[in-house]
Design a protein that fits this description.
Length: 172
């Protein structure tokens, strides 16, 4: 059985395309074009299920068409609308950190170079122009802005995010 800590998101299925089970999808990384991933993983009613890829092609830099084995009708494809597409963590080393969806970091511990362990990221707030990592504390919560330049290291196996925050940011 596949668990959530063994996979990472790479995109989302949009809608059926045509009547033969093909689907349009968005992606944040083209890792499946450089690596031979035989299947994508989808969350079907709380269970992570592998779906073997019959074919796919790119339309733009972040959209494409996808066809799974044994999905052969528009009706079958409709059941996949809105589902997130995952790959196994073994492909993480081939993915640039900038291509990982930010919600992937929910559950990661954040450690700052000056202040040490800040806590565990509970959510990623993308409702404003400035994306924020939300870390609950005893009295309140820390809101840490996402800037790629602040990230020093990511340890995917230990689910640790190492940052170097500007002095005084935590005092705001």
């Amino acid at each position: 059985m596949i668990s959530a800590n063994e996979i990472f998101p790479i995109g989302q299925i949009n809608k059926p395309h045509g009547v033969n089970g093909e689907m349009s999808f968005n992606f944040t990384t083209d890792i499946f074009d450089t690596e031979e991933a035989p299947f994508f993983i989808l969350n079907i009613q709380g269970i992570f299920v592998p779906f073997f890829i019959e074919s796919y092609r790119f339309n733009t830099d972040n959209t494409g068409m996808l066809k799974f084995d044994d999905i052969n009708s528009e009706e079958q494809a409709r059941e996949f609308i809105g589902l997130t597409i995952y790959l196994e963590n073994k492909y993480l080393n081939q993915v640039e950190d900038t291509e990982i969806e930010l919600n992937y970091f929910v559950g990661f511990s954040m450690t700052d170079a000056q202040n040490g362990l800040l806590g565990v990221i509970a959510e990623v707030d993308q409702s404003t122009e400035n994306v924020l990592f939300v870390i609950p504390t005893e009295n309140d919560e820390l809101l840490i802005p996402f800037f790629e330049d602040l990230i020093e290291k990511i340890d995917h196996k230990k689910k640790m995010l190492f940052v170097n925050l500007p002095i005084g940011l935590l005092d705001l």
